Amino acid sequence: MAEITLDKVTKRFPDGTEAVKQLDLDIADGEFLILVGPSGCGKSTALRMIAGLEDISDGELRIGENVVNGKAPKDRDIAMVFQNYALYPHMTVRENMAFPLKMAKVEQSKIDEMVENAAQILDLTEHLDRKPSNLSGGQRQRVAMGRAIVREPKAFLMDEPLSNLDAKLRVQMRAEVSRIQNRLETTTVYVTHDQTEAMTLGDRVAVMRKGELQQVGSPQELYDHPVNLFVAGFIGSPSMNFMPVEVSGRTAKLPFCEVEISEATVSSLESHSAQNLMAGVRPEHFEDAKLIGDQEGPRFEVEVSILESMGSELYVYFDTDAEVRAEQLDELAADTGGESASESGQIVARLDATSEAKRGERIELWMDPTKLHFFDLESGERVAAADEG
Amino acid sequence: MTEQRTAQERIIWLLGIVVVIFYALFPVLWIISLSLKTPATVTVTPNEGFWGTLVPSEATFKNYEALFTDGLDGPFLKPLINSIGIALIATVIAIVLASFAAYAIARLDFPGKTAVLGGALAIAMFPAISTVGPLFDMWRALGLYDTWAGLIIPYLSFSLPLAIYTLVAFFREIPWELEQAAQVDGATPFQAFRKVIVPLATPGMFTAAILVFIFAWNDFLFAISLTSSDASRTVPAALAFFTGDSQFTQPFANIAAAAVIVTIPIIIFVLIFQRRIVAGLTSGAVKG
Ligand SMILES: Nc1ncnc2c1ncn2[C@@H]1O[C@H](COP(=O)(O)OP(=O)(O)O)[C@@H](O)[C@H]1O
Ligand SMILES: [Mg+2]
Prior knowledge:
heterodimer, B: 13 helices
């Protein structure tokens, strides 16, 4: 076990692509860190540099006390779980799991014991003598985990280990990964492009964009205080709603209502002197006005254009004619393969299931005035939030 | 309706298979028949008709015995040993070298990679006959004339390109991640190659091995040009030196017997390795 430190680590490929730019990360001993971002942002490259599978072009990587830039993967004492599992097809499950121990020249009797133990933890005991080709996707995934946990490496590195599983199995394995990491308390770096996985698994989450680190923090921190449009739009599902805003005095004018903001918010907005502002509100910070009693906050009427009932909650979509574009949001939209909602002026609100919203009808909504975020439209930086100042 | 058609199809298939098998095996049958005839009946024909000619009237193993009667001094045993030794050694060396070369070509980016591949292909295309003259002179000067090495070397240069091409195709099929997984698991690059890549490429190695072995086993051109005695003469060349019982009888039956015997190792080789190849391919799961 050890801490991992990345000090301005950069990866430049021979073709000139800078896949990772000046990455600074301090991963504490025993910490579960998630590296998240849309595909192509350099997560895998960063992880592979930690593993030693990719040379580091610039900067310094330390595992424990030692600088390991020049060390071969086998001398770094780390274990890795690959996206496609990378199980050795010609070996049985037992041989697959024993492989790292054999390489470390552990005694055979000890190997047997350690493999049995790991198999027990992962519920693989009865499959030990089968070949990977005879296993289901979930079982293969567990063998890949088994091969990592069978020895006690300084760190686990996982590259989208659950992305090949179907949705249900993924949720199940997510819990399993979390349980195992808690139990072994081994430093873990886990790469994913799935923000749900990032939010549910990690002690801390690092968000990357185009090879650059955007923000590192606990899931709650990222959710409450995203540093820019990119993080705000990436974290949370459904994503935050973005819309143009005009501030005059202590009033923020949104396309569908006006919100009173605090003195502190106003002054921090002024100190940033942003030209154009953009506002962001998460869907869960709206509510059906009927269910909210007399809590403070703006109330406004909209027409429900789409209604999605999830049983436990309702998603209400309504249109505004105010559309905004921002580079960072376009990137996020490109990753999910659609146009961003803010581009079409559509807003989504998450309401309690007891709401009586109906499609095509008008409904009065309430918005939590303390949960409004302000971003600079040009730089994407968050310049103020209603709840901090 | 559909059932009828499948029955019909089956009959057509069956007929086709029978024709192909007969076409392919008839010369083999003929030579087996020839090898079992007595010298007197070999050339005697044919008022007994077709089947009378094919089925020897008095079968004898004398032709086979005659091949081995004088042991190592006989006309056949030493060349057979030469053939087996030379073909096996050429095969082993070719596979080892081709594995390394193919691995480098499949996995690494190095300057001149396409040149190496193109050069290998050009060598394979090169007419062997044009190298025989220079090789003869060179081997005489170097003392390689009429030695095993003198044959193994040209066999390697003509069969390596094919072996490399075959193996490159197999190596490319193996996900690179497997090797990286092995390295992270604590293997040196060579251990990763030996314990992970090589076992997965075995079907490819056996395919390449069969190709090299058959090339070396069947070669006549180099064998006849670069040897002068039983020290290294292989079976195809030795057959040309068979003599009959007298000056006026051709040793057809003996040649036929020798031909049958040299076919056997090839059949065994292919049968063994074919099973390995099929086993390798069906154990599958190289991917996913
Ligand atoms: N060997 C390579 N040569 C050149 N560019 C590469 C190479 N590998 C990856 N890249 C580029 O680096 C960027 C980051 O890739 P990667 O780390 O795999 O992203 P992620 O894992 O976040 O999806 C991508 O734009 C990709 O095209
Ligand atoms: Mg990736």
